[in-house]
Amino acid sequence: MSEDLVNIEVDGIPLKAKKGTMLIRVTDEAGIRIPRFCYHDKLSVAANCRMCLVEVEKAPKPMPACATPVAEGMRVWTRSPKALAAQKATMEFLLINHPLDCPVCDQGGECELQDVSMGYGEGISRYSEAKRAVKDKDIGPLIATEMTRCIHCTRCVRFGEEIAGLRELGATGRGEFMEIGTFVEKSVTSELSGNVIDLCPVGALTAKPSRFTYRAWELVQHASVAPHDGVGSNIHLHTYNGRVMRVVPRHNEAVNETWISDRDRFSYTGLGAADRLTAPMIREGDQWVTTDWETALTRVVEGLRGQPAEACGALLSPQASVEELYLAQQWLRGLGVRNLDHRLRQSDFSDQDRAPLFPYLGDALEALEQTRACLLVGSEIRKDQPLAGHRLRKAALGGARVMAINPRQVPFNFPVAETVSADPRGMVLALAGVARAALERAGRTAPEGFKALLQAARTDETVRAMAQALAEGEGARVLLGVQAHAHPHFALLRALAGLVCETTGATLGYLPDGGNGAGAWLAGAVAHRGPAGESLDAAGQTPDQWLQPGLKGCLLLNVEPDMDCEDPARVMKALGSAAFVAALTPFAGEALKRVAHVLLPVATFAETSGTYVNVEGRWQSVAGAAQPPGETRPAWKVLRVLGNMSGLEGFEYLSSEEVRDALKDRLRAAGVEGFDTVYRHDGASLAVPEASRGLQRIGAVGPYGVDSLVRRAAPLQATQDAGAHALARIHPRQARSLGLEEGDQVEVRQEGLSARLPLALDEAIPEGCLWLPVGVAATRHLGRSHGAVELNKV
Amino acid sequence: MAGNPTQRKSDVLNAHVRAEIDDWLSRYPQDQRQSAVLGALRAVQHEHGHLTTELMDAVADYIGMPEIAVYEVASFYSMFELEPVGRHTISVCTNVSCMLRGADQILAHLEQRLGIRLGETTPDGRFFLKREEECLAACCGAPMMQVDHVYYEHLTPEKVDEILDSLE
């Protein structure tokens, strides 16, 4: 170790550094500030802005600190007359073509160019000739461009290539005519694209939804956590007069590094949606009337009390905080309501008793980078959990074999090894094939119960290669993604994944939907377990069982029943027939207004304190940042009051921290310390799924359909990802045999229900399947997300 | 990429161009396929006269590199034409040696005879008077011009007429 270290001296300060490290990294760590534009810690070195020139002993010319490796005995001066002259000259060159109108620029006040020119530039410009002007580009609804301000640092270009894995921006032309852009008119489509806004050191790339609506110095910064996926990206909410004006990443190397997804960045734009609920409302006949909290709360308590508890249920959002979910289940169970769940999109609960304490990734997020082989089952990780996808991408670029068994061929932004795309039955048989190949390799016989399944398994080169990679790859993993959790045979997938892991030594991991899926399990927001995984005297029914006609009463916590649930048609029907439905919700959506009897306005993640547990089991507590609109109250307070009004004990919490600590105490009391994902099948015979007849529906929630807030974020809904997700998709050969063409308006029929939407031809869809999106308006009147459907041209 | 890949963007490249690109690809290591982009673009331009976005996308698809990276290369080099141009490309050298030997008169003669300005194409699509080239390393034969890939040296207006007449 010590022989790798070299001694250098910077501005007279002796420093030790690893040989070959770039000088700027060493000075940054030592707190010696060298100005820079193109250098970024997470990107490759371009050394094209020349701002970081410093004087190095024995070097005839100033050297760029970002591209100068340290060597023994090196002596550097960052503020010597020679260094300063070079920096000043660079600054002058950069400002030749840069507009000097900071007061009208959106970046003004937080501009690296402005800051550095204050420190290193001249007060006046010697340049009196014409400046160049560059036409602005339209690169989509999220990023505004003002390309005359661009100083060609190429951070955005390198970000696309190195981090997003999707090279969309480039430097075209040369010399005076060089421009950064897409060259052809197109939107950038990366799910991480918004990060170039932070990377851009000048005002060339700024946030389109928020530009010109504030000045950076007017904003108040609040630390928070994004609730839209299981990564729990750390963010800063920037508020002005209590309103969230924008969201930027908060650096946390272990979670999101320095990036956030576009979903986490722009979801705040839905906070002020037109249907935001600002006061409690009750239904009087066919009319919705605004009322006060006391009336509304009394109505809720009495309404639920008036129904037999066993005929009542509750749907709780997997985006809700730990505190909200814990109090909700305390209150409901206190009332005797046992049917409560956050697993809104799940349809197969048959193995829930053997489920782990919570759907755990199996390791730290950072460990995904070290895996040498990873099998994704039902996971579009790149769009579902973009920053977990980024970790896996790093592993893949390092040579890891990433494989997938998915309903459709997912576009990856990194090299992938074997992939299978198949209908639900085909996915099971493919994973069974991996299990069978793994057993054969290990020379083991199939455990009890698997015989029939392995007999029917797919046997080909692909599944054998998958088994081999998992058996040989260090730190191998099998990850069950969002679509595995929604799979009609989730239990079979889990049993097989468990067997594959047991046989190959791979680690099983979960990547469920929701920002707090893990927290929901820990808080006891499942029918069959209490908080801390405690067993219950009497388990409740699963949502597929109780969300049926005959339902009497229901509570919805930030759930839009036609968008957030498996089989929206059945859920809406059940709710429609219930005598009493209450919803705690930030938004008064159309569906809620149709089925609910009381609407209680509750705060979103940005407006209340709360805790979210991510897929690695990391508890992250945040404080409320924005002012909740109107009469809106934090949901945890509403639930606490409901508990008090119901005459229940143990609802005396004064802060959300107390609620959280109460749950932590229960975890401690239950002896929960470590956790794992080891899953062993109980030996019962597993049946081969029946072959299905006709066109099979497959589909999933798109990245911008995951929750009520994201669905109301207009800029996200204007993206290509959202647009591409609102289509029915079918393989071109299948379309030809049905006489259908790209862009046709089609009618989809499913068990007497129908929906109309445009058709896209897509080779990524297996033949025999029809991809229908979930969580979009077009399909909210349909039923199960799987099963037979008919397709006709309108 | 997903979407609709029933047709590939590289389908527009004909067998001849594909053979040329394959030849370039064979000269570089497997993991350095993008090195062939210059040769590929030259082959495509030779075949089609100029580079359209469609053709550049085809090259990107064929080589397997991002489209924007092909645009970067094509827009950087002045030898690539991104707009339609005439069949014959005429580049007159006006650098020091040629200038001293009367390149300006040669250029003026060309402009007058063809009825177009520098950077324009004749209406019949026959000639393209390319933006002037810098030194083409034929100072000993100054003044000179390059028509398509051929050097013509010791130019006089009469000689220019002769050359132009001999071209289709």
Automatic annotation (TrEMBL), chain A:
- Give the molecular function GO annotations: 2 iron, 2 sulfur cluster binding; 4 iron, 4 sulfur cluster binding; metal ion binding; molybdopterin cofactor binding; NADH dehydrogenase (ubiquinone) activity; oxidoreductase activity, acting on NAD(P)H; quinone binding
Q: Can you list the GO cellular component terms from the UniProt entry?
A: membrane; oxidoreductase complex
Q: What is its EC number?
A: 7.1.1.-
InterPro entries membership: 2Fe-2S_ferredoxin-like_sf (IPR036010), 2Fe-2S_ferredoxin-type (IPR001041), Asp_de-COase-like_dom_sf (IPR009010), MoPterin_dinucl-bd_dom (IPR006657), Mopterin_OxRdtase (IPR006656), Mopterin_OxRdtase_4Fe-4S_dom (IPR006963), NADH_UbQ_OxRdtase_75kDa_su_CS (IPR000283), NADH_UbQ_OxRdtase_ferredoxin (IPR054351)
Q: Which domain of life is it from?
A: Bacteria
Q: Known catalysed reaction(s)? A: a quinone + NADH + 5 H(+)(in) = a quinol + NAD(+) + 4 H(+)(out)
Q: Where is the 4Fe-4S His(Cys)3-ligated-type domain?
A: 82-121
Q: Which PROSITE patterns match?
A: 4FE4S_HC3 (PS51839), 4FE4S_MOW_BIS_MGD (PS51669), COMPLEX1_75K_1 (PS00641), COMPLEX1_75K_2 (PS00642), COMPLEX1_75K_3 (PS00643)
Give a GO biological-process term.
ATP synthesis coupled electron transport
Can you give the residue ranges of the 4Fe-4S Mo/W bis-MGD-type domain? 219-275
How the cofactor is bound: the record states: Binds 1 [2Fe-2S] cluster per subunit.
Q: Which cofactor does it need?
A: [4Fe-4S] cluster; [2Fe-2S] cluster
Alphabetically sorted, this entry's keywords are: 2Fe-2S, 4Fe-4S, Iron, Iron-sulfur, Metal-binding, NAD, Quinone, Translocase
Gene3D superfamilies, per the entry: 2.40.40.20, 3.10.20.740, 3.30.200.210, 3.30.70.20, 3.40.50.740
Q: What does this protein do?
A: NDH-1 shuttles electrons from NADH, via FMN and iron-sulfur (Fe-S) centers, to quinones in the respiratory chain. Couples the redox reaction to proton translocation (for every two electrons transferred, four hydrogen ions are translocated across the cytoplasmic membrane), and thus conserves the redox energy in a proton gradient.
So what family is this one in?
A: Belongs to the complex I 75 kDa subunit family.
Summary of subunit composition and partner proteins: Composed of 13 different subunits. Subunits NuoCD, E, F, and G constitute the peripheral sector of the complex.
Q: What is this protein called?
A: NADH-quinone oxidoreductase
Species source reads: Ectothiorhodospira mobilis
Lineage, opening ranks = Bacteria, Pseudomonadati, Pseudomonadota, Gammaproteobacteria, Chromatiales
Automatic annotation (TrEMBL), chain B:
What InterPro entries does the record tag this protein with? NuoE-like, NuoE_dom, NuoE_N, Thioredoxin-like_sf
Q: Which domain of life is it from?
A: Bacteria
Question: What Gene Ontology molecular-function terms does this entry list?
Answer: 2 iron, 2 sulfur cluster binding; metal ion binding; NADH dehydrogenase activity
Recite the UniProt cofactor note for this protein. Binds 1 [2Fe-2S] cluster.
Q: Which cofactor does it need?
A: [2Fe-2S] cluster
Please write the reaction equations for the catalytic activity of this protein.
Answer: a quinone + NADH + 5 H(+)(in) = a quinol + NAD(+) + 4 H(+)(out)
Detail which positions bind [2Fe-2S] cluster: C93, C98, C135, C139
- Which UniProt keywords are present, listed alphabetically? 2Fe-2S, Iron, Iron-sulfur, Metal-binding
Q: Which family does it belong to?
A: Belongs to the complex I 24 kDa subunit family.
Q: Which PANTHER family does the record cross-reference, listed alphabetically?
A: NADH DEHYDROGENASE [UBIQUINONE] FLAVOPROTEIN 2, MITOCHONDRIAL, NADH DEHYDROGENASE UBIQUINONE FLAVOPROTEIN 2, MITOCHONDRIAL
Q: What is this protein called?
A: NADH-quinone oxidoreductase subunit E
